[in-house]
Amino acid sequence: MKKFFLHLTLIVTLFTFSAQAQNKISVTNLQCEMLNNPEGIDVLKPRLSWKIKSDVNDVKQTAYQILVASTLENLNANKADLWDSGKVTSNESVNVVYNGKKLSDRQNAFWKVTVFTNKGEIKSTEKAHFSIGVLTYADWKSTRWIGYEKLSKDDSISQYSKLSARYLRKEIDLKKQVKSAKVYIMGMGLYELYINGNKIGDQVLAPVPTDYTKNVKYNVFDVTSQLKEGKNMLGTILGNGRFFAMRQDYKPYKIKSFGLPKMALQLFVEYIDGSKEVIRTDDTWKLTTEGPILSNNEYDGEEYDARKEMKGWATTNFDDKNWVNARYVQEPGGFYEAQMTPNMKIMGEVKPISIKATAKGTYILDMGQNMVGWLQLKVKGKSGDKITMKFAESLQADGSLYIANLRDAKTTDVYTLKGGAEEIWEPRFIFHGFRFVEVSGFPTKPTLDNFIGKVVYDDMKTTGTFESSDATMNQIFKNAWWGISGNYKGMPIDCPQRNERQPWLGDRTTGAYGESFLFNNQTLYAKWLDDIKYSQTQDGGLPDVAPAFWRYYGDNVTWPGTYITVADMLYHQFGDQELIKKQYPNMKKWMLYMEENYLENDLMNKDKYGDWCVPPESLELIRSKDPARLTDGELISSAFYYQLLGIMKKFAKIANADADIAHYGDLETRIKKAFNAKFFNVDKNTYANNTVTANLLPLAFGIVPENVKDKVFQNMAHEVEVTKQGHISTGVIGTQFLMRTLTNFGRGDLAFKLASNKTYPSWGFMVENGATTIWELWNGNTADPSMNSQNHVMLLGDLLIWYYENMAGIKSNPETPGFKQIIMKPDFNAGLTFVNASYESIYGLIKSDWKKNKNTLEWKITIPANSSALVYLPTVNVSDVKVNKQKVDKNSKIENNKTVLELPSGTYQINVNNIK
């Protein structure tokens, strides 16, 4: 079994003793960073973390002591029968590796920590818990996969496959009083689990998708409270998900499919007397396909006939004589792994803002927001009344749905009433990307109260907030939040509405970095790196889509290189070194594969997508036809490969592969020389055909010779400011580095102009034209709307990173990954007059709230305990600076016309006068 690592976060609230009063000490918000519910983790050496919260400044951890016990009773008695770390002198409060007794299958562990600080000793009063899952394949061997390998009479396999849900049930008799019980379930493609009629857990669309021939995720639930001595009923519903593919047997050369739904389950029971029992799936389980879910297809929607509901089917008093025995079926083929990332949940609700009748007797419902999830329906009518709901992102001029951009996705839910009392229904196994819904067949005139939108994405915390003096930038931030959250579906997908919804690597090359400020996406992207690793070919190639549901192995640098850049993000933002060590061999294998196959004359000669989605010269064009706007593919791939070599040198050191560093460095030197020899125009101080991207990439990656760097930048800035009149001219590739590079070279004002623009092409142009998410195309409403997803995130580039690092001044020091030290260096002169932003880092909450008024600056900052910050102020006159109303040391450091303060943790009010 692969060894994974777990983060357990223990939030320790610290109140120190002062001369005036004795403050309270408490512990709050115990949680698991890797899992909301740390049951059944797939790990032998978990990493433990905690946060220190304090109401005073300058709190530093000096040591810790961790106690881990096999029972809560032992822990309460300070009997650490699994591990007593002893007092360890260390300031590390993140990623402390468990180093106790070997943990075994289904092992329970309870732990607490004592933190020693420069302000005193803090003991945690609450306790954290985790348990080990099923660590070996052999433990699953006697658990058989069951299912039904036939189609029902109304099922079909075609371009629009239709397959009814499988319902399974098993009555069990527990002879003794239950002490504890856990269910371990693999339900492919999606499942809902019931015990005695009650749904277990609040997750939806579980488990997360994988390439099931490579790895299969199991979920674990503590069901002790759901079971009783005597007869109990286990029930499951199996939906299709990505297992029974949305386009089964359609384009089999492209679309991967896995077969019909199936399940393996263990119920592990421990009785009060200490005896144990395991109930497993076998052919005594009963099954039917005659339930109310007639079809569930992610592209096409869900059909539900309430007349076929089977009341009490998951309880012991149900008559299942017409059900058949489940069949033993072939396992999926992939290795079994505990799911180390949260499932999806209903994360919120959206109430519609209007409903209008159409000439053809239907109704158009407007949610007011392009959202991802589904619609809950409330209705009263006759048995057999059929309500159809078709979902879309926008309307045509006549007020009807615009569906051309959905391609062949039907995006339609159908509900047939059973009749009588009010009925409430929502689908189980699908999701839609939509703002508008056409409702037909409603038995009465519908009102807004008949509908509620359910927002569905991965169960992760929103960690970032941002508000500024520019309304356009604020709306773009909101649009980005909706787009990012909606495309988190157990993997990062490109869009949620049309017949695609694929985890394209190139969409997240830099985007994942920006997203990490808004969401705690650490475990999602750690899982996705495994998806990429599992998709690697034997010779080292990587696909453009992973998991490889589509067989897109085209060999290029910019899309597969995401494997490395996302790993770098996880290291930079979350301090995750173990992930680098785990993934390094496969990343190295791909780098060598590309070098051996496509490095020619020290340049990378293979590119596939170019600077994808460059803004066309006309609002009516989908793709630019002007060669002057297009960047040489060899330049792009060579520059990107050069950048990746620098990251790999860092990774090699982390992975104790120092012997590789020299090779990467030698390649860097050779590529830099060949790159400048071929692409640099010494007479014009430009690269290739002088597109912004052609000059930007060598500037951002450090390829440009030092003596001409400023000249190249001035040419690039001229292209942005004059030739393109202050508008975006980069595609997916260039936009990943545009905003930060402009700011780093002193033109934050030009970056601000791009961010706040309202005319084409710009993010603001989308806002001005009614977008509530981010479009796929800069001109998606005018070129060919049928080609435009109205909920994509790839064009965000480095915009969100720029928001936080360059405008708010919240950046992790690369020398101390994970925000152990924060660089707070906003560009106060870019054009904004205030920014109020926050970010919940792995050390705690970081805040930056600044206001600029004429020649004064007011800046409130919060630095979490056990971290520090380098704070850059826009003055060289230290006498003009006050921190918490106190003057600062007149010998404070001056760097590049800025006063630099190194502040310990705490909350500070900084005032600066006479700024320029």
TrEMBL record:
Residues 809-885 form the Alpha-L-rhamnosidase C-terminal domain. Its EC number is 3.2.1.40. Residues 1-21 form the signal peptide. Coiled coil: none annotated. It catalyses: Hydrolysis of terminal non-reducing alpha-L-rhamnose residues in alpha-L-rhamnosides. Residues 357-457 form the Alpha-L-rhamnosidase concanavalin-like domain. It comes from the Bacteria. One of its GO terms (molecular function) is alpha-L-rhamnosidase activity. One of its GO terms (biological process) is carbohydrate metabolic process. Residues 176-347 form the Bacterial alpha-L-rhamnosidase N-terminal domain. Residues 462-807 form the Alpha-L-rhamnosidase six-hairpin glycosidase domain. Gene3D superfamilies: 1.50.10.10, Galactose-binding domain-like (2.60.120.260), Immunoglobulins (2.60.40.10), Maltose phosphorylase, domain 3 (2.60.420.10). This is alpha-L-rhamnosidase. It comes from Flavobacterium seoulense.
